[in-house]
Amino acid sequence: MDELFQSRRMWRRHELKPHYDVAIVGAGVHGLATAYYLAKEHGVRKVALLEKGYLGCGSSGRNTAILRSNYRTVEGIPFYELSLKLYEQMSAELGWNVLFSQCGHLTLAHNDSGVAGLRVRAENNQLLGVDSRIIYPAEIRRLVPALDVSSGAHWPILAALYHPPGGIIRHDAVVWGYARACDALGVEIHPFTEVTGMETARGRVERVRTTRGDLAAGAVVNCTAGWASTVSQMAGVPLPIVTHPLQACVTEPLKPFLHHVIVSATLHVYVNQTDKGELVIGAEIDPYQSYSFRGTLPTLEQMATYTLELFPQLHGLRVLRQWAGVCDITPDFAPIIGRAEDVVNFYMDVGWGTYGFKAAPGSGKLLAALIATGRAPELLEPFAPGRFRQGRLVGEKAAAAVSH
Amino acid sequence: MRFEFNGTPVEARPGDTVASALYRAGQRVFSRSFKYHRPRGLLCGAGKCPNCLMQVDGVPNVRVCVTPARDGLVVRHQHAYPSLDFDWLSLAQRFDAFLPVGWYYKTFRSHALWRAAEPFIRRAAGLGVVPADPAGEYEHAFRQADVAVIGGGPSGLEAALAHAGAGSEVVLVDDQPELGGHRRYRKRAGPEPTDLIARVRSHPAISVLAGAYCFGLYEGNLLGVVQPAPHARCRERLLHLRAAHVVVATGVYEAPLLFPNNDLVGVMLSTAAQRLIHLHGLPPGKRAAVIGRGVRAEEVLADLRSAGVETHLLIAPEEVERAEGAASVSALRARGERFPCDVVVVCGHLVPDAGLLSQAGARLDWNAQVGAFCPAGLPPTMSAAGEVTGAGLSAAAPLPAPVAPHKRAFVCVCTDATTQDLCDALGEGFDHMETLKRYTTTTMGPCQGRMCQLNAIAVCARQTGRGMQETGVTTSRPPNPGVTLGALAGPRHHPIRRTPLHHQHADRGAVWLDMGEWKRPRYYRTAASSDETTCVRAEYAAVRQRVGLIDVSTLGKLEVRGRDAGRLLDKVYTHRFSDLAVGRARYATLCDDHGILLDDGTISRLAEDRYFLTTTTGNLDFVEQWLLWWLAGTGQHVHIANVTGGLAAVNLAGPLARDTLRKLTALDLGSQAFSYMACRQAEVAGIPAILLRIGFVGETGWEIHVPAECGPDLWDALLDAGREFGIRPFGVEAQRLLRLEKKHVIIGVDTDALTTPYEAGLNWVVRREKEDFIGRHALSGSPRSPRRESLVGLVVEGEQTPEDGSAVMINGRPAGRVTSARFSPHVGAPIALAWAPEAKAVEGARVEVRIRGRAVTARVTLEAFYDPEGARLRA
Questions:
Q1: Does B118 touch chain A (CB under 8 A)?
Q2: Which CATH code of 3.40.190.10, 3.40.50.1980, 3.50.50.60, 3.30.390.50 fits the domain covering A14-63+172-240+333-400?
Q3: Looking at domain B786-875, which CATH architecture does it have?
Q4: Hey, where are the domains in chain B?
Q5: Does A54 touch chain B (CB under 8 A)?
Q6: Do A300 and B479 touch (CB under 8 A)?
Q7: Are the C-beta atoms of residues B255 and B414 closer than 8 Å to each other?
Q8: Does domain B2-125 have CATH number 3.10.20.440?
Q9: What is the rounded CA–CA span in Å between residue B273 and residue B283?
Q10: For B735, phi and psi rounded to 5 degrees?
Q11: What are the residue ranges of CATH 3.50.50.60 in chain A?
């Protein structure tokens, strides 16, 4: 309670030092989580987080903050489940409420093949201990009275994958909570410090150049999103990544009427209502590659159209803001985590597409273990950078495309 | 004119807004604030602040100060319990010591505590309520212009005339009901531009959209413009206006000053007071204290006096100590004195309304002389005119403001963030405008930053010792002003596609299945039964034992002609088609660069330079675009025509199909003359037709394509001819069962976004020796090498049929999935197509299938369940 009545800097300013044990590029939620676990669980405290903008300026502050672990594959499910569990403990662990609203997550199916797709997930979820099941219109109507489940709807709702532990979180609070905890553990956070290049020699990154000076580090970690491929290229590591914008919008506040996260993959839309009362609506990634943060009118119109297909009564509600983030998409819609094949002190936690936020605590914890011990935890193995060369793709693509 | 407010009738005059009519009727409290539920009155009078949000005809969060009063409107307050004048939740103010900025992050610091507290916080938040009324008519319109001028004040009018005079076609958009801009209510700022208005109105090259607002400027000078109520049956029309050049003449809006109790009811901006006086003939109060200096303040003072309001001498902004009053203002404290009043008129900061420019990439540079962020670095396709450029402004009050942190000096009226809150947040390290914004929620409310941004920047600049320019503005994002979901969605059409044989199916009792926009018969009810299982079983039996007929008109159909047609198909499809003999058909699959299956169908060569393609129902548009994409720029002579809508198609299949068809055509249908995978053009029942000898369901059969208008005749003729053989139409469900027994794959059902032809058991469709085709690199390895799983057949033990999507397990761990499962009358057991690990893709291997939570043993089979040699298909 004391903290309520005092104001103390949550993270301090530092001069950039010439050497760190670990330099992490990108102080978004992935970089912060990695630094946090390095310091907390492995005693690696000489860590610098290098952020080109303000804290949380990238995808960490642009996503729709949906958490869930009802993935499709045996590789993906335990990975996201680990993160979900860490999110559940986060407020207590960090002493900072991250506003995790575990309201439940529903993915709707509007046709037979959609139902079959949900069943694949439900079955694998249940077998791996994740609370997830198929429910039908009567139960959907009871849970979400606001939803139009009438059979006359153009997109009839035949079933839903119901995932009670899923929900939404305050994304900025996670960033700030981690930053505060990192600072307390001695990690240095350097906002407005853009990495502009790297010097490599003998298969190592020798120097990292930034807008505030150069530094050397025992390990260099790429935790960026949107520019993951360009940052890795600085270390001479090419990545099979393409970057697409992803757009979302938020409406004016309404009295609470929707208490679950509602997703429709067929309609390419996901909707939830925040505690403030605003509706947050997200879209499918834009169909073209771009680094643009500028929202587009057709996508905004599409989000509105699909939202009204599900909630026609909202036609008079005003959209207040639309925004875009950029997403690094890998060929199999699964992330790339691990040490670069040919640069021994260069690590990556990238290629998170549209689902990086929900995986941050878990991947940070596992990556920290890899950096500190040199051994890749079992859960990380499927996501190693070498898999594309070996043709070992992860089968998450079929489920991840729009299921936020 | 009369409308209803909280159940009480309110009289309104022509030209009134809902707010002005209410004000005339004595209403002073218009809303309650978001966090502390403080009473709030009219502040901006221009639809820019959150103070007059009400529920109008059920629609939440309506700005009543810009909503024209209409007869019969039903207006209700929102976010106050039980009433605007007395609100229980205003008790929250008493506990403000416990509710500092970010209080919710610092309390409930465990998941369990937060789970307990959250529902209560949630209930207290929000503004309006969701209406039950789903109705709402909206339109979309599209328009192009040489020049779009946004803003109908003197500068906008002049710009429109100048561009029109230079020969451009101009569209002028203005958000007020009448042109003239601020001159309509700032009478002393200059004469009303009546002459300009008349010239604009009568100019043939200028179209005026008055009462319409522009909410965003997108890539390529695309403007989103909303016209409220363009006609009686439409709530809003969204106009997509694309202009070669955009002139932004949006002027300025007024933002509040910071002093304690600056949010009391009765504290209003000077332009709001002037609007009441000049647009509605309403004195804002009896006795006013005016805060301001210079010409503009004198102008406001004179307006008030001429409206009969008693006024004190002008009070300079820096002299103000605080406003006083319980619910509404009773006095202003300044320079040690108390000025009793019932209204405080604030000459606030004039802020250039440069959002559109900023969205297009213009910078906003701080200009200390005028006390404003002014646009600079405009893109070449845009210009700015008038006060939005900063011209003619002078600073209302010194910026950055000398602020003492105070718990009642409101920066953000939308979310009740005060100077105290901002200073606390700055002390905690949120010293960048973007983080300050996110931590305090300033600029994130319904006003979209218009009331609070400048003050927030001033506080931030002051506390951090940085300049205004260095502190900078936050990003301007569309839509601004907000726009309704209804207007964005526009008219919601749901096209339905019916095949040419639709009425034939309806007459026969079809039960429909939606496949995208198409309606297809799932099965046909009969006089004997309408039970799905019974009907499907009967349809199945007809095809296996006699003859059946199915409508396959929904298949995508493309004609690819030209001397290079074969080359294009060789490039795009995995098989080779340039060597296909005329009169032959071949199964065709399409992959992407990663070798992943995208679509399948058949390709028939009707003539040397003419191919006939079918695609799956859902992928037609994609395949057509994909072919066009790969054709573009090659210089090849190929024409691609989508003939889907022009053709009806049926599949006649079963051991007696030949006997049926023979009655209607002169064609030799013998298994030698018209062999499996042959194609012919001939007349059937006197109708010119394309016949393909193919068999998705595994029996002797023909796919017959005829002109759409002849489809019903063909259907009837085939049923007539087949009557003696016991013919029966069959639906999609029977077809799915029939093809499953043949292990024929449906792309997108049995395959997913990572399936290659090799994994799907379609090795033979990939011609790896071809010089080039899409996916060649990915498929160049051995079909057997890096395969993790395979599509196999399963025969399931027991009576229960697995549901599509059920898990395949090995030792209780997930190891695959069932894609399609049905009870097979032929096998006498449930069968399935399923993905299983490569190690289990062995004839006779055992796996488990999870059926309703229970593990059931299943046997792997690699051959088709029915007629594995294809003897019946070829017969």
A1: yes
A2: 3.50.50.60
A3: Beta Barrel (2.40)
A4: 2-125, 137-252, 257-347, 399-476, 786-875
A5: yes
A6: yes
A7: no
A8: yes
A9: 8
A10: -60, -40
A11: 14-63+172-240+333-400
- Contact state of A294 with B359 under an 8 Å Cβ cutoff: yes
Please state the pTM of the whole predicted model.
0.93
Q: pLDDT at position A403, please?
A: 44
Q: Scanning every residue of chain A, which has its alpha carbon at the shortest distance from the alpha carbon of B850?
A: A123
Question: Do residue B118 and residue A95 have CB atoms under 8 angstroms apart?
Answer: no
Q: Per residue in B248-258, pLDDT tens? A: 999 999 999 99
Interface contact flag, A308 B489, Cβ < 8 Å = yes
Out of B115, B446, B485, name the one closest to residue A315 (CB): B485
Which chain B residue is nearest to residue A9, measuring alpha carbons? B428
* pLDDT digit string, tens, across residues B564-591: 999 999 999 999 999 999 999 999 999 9
Q: Which CATH class is domain A101-165+243-329?
A: alpha beta
- Does B478 sit within 8 Å of A295, measured CB to CB? yes
B137-252 sits in which CATH class? alpha beta
Structure tokens at B314: 């002008």
pLDDT digits (tens, 9 = 90+) for B123-137: 888 899 988 777 789
CATH number of B257-347: 3.50.50.60
CA B352/CA B252 separation, integer angstroms: 4
The Cα A71–Cα A80 span in angstroms is: 8
CA distance, residue B411 to nearest chain A CA (Å): 19
Whether B602 contacts B694, CB under 8 Å:
yes
Distance, in angstroms, between B436 CA and closest chain A CA? 11
User: Measured between alpha carbons, how far is B565 from B610 in angstroms, rounded to an integer?
Assistant: 7
Question: What are residue A109's phi and psi, to 5 degrees?
Answer: -120, 135
How confident is residue A397, by pLDDT bands cut at 50, 70 and 90? low
Superfamily the domain B399-476 falls into: BFD-like [2Fe-2S]-binding domain (1.10.10.1100)
Q: What tens digit of pLDDT does each residue of B432-463 get?
A: 999 999 999 999 999 999 999 999 999 999 99
List pLDDT tens digits, range A108-145: 999 888 999 999 999 999 999 999 999 999 999 999 99
Residue B785 has pLDDT above 80, yes or no: no
Q: How far apart are CA B531 and CA B542, in angstroms?
A: 17
Helix (H) or strand (E) holding B541: helix B532-545
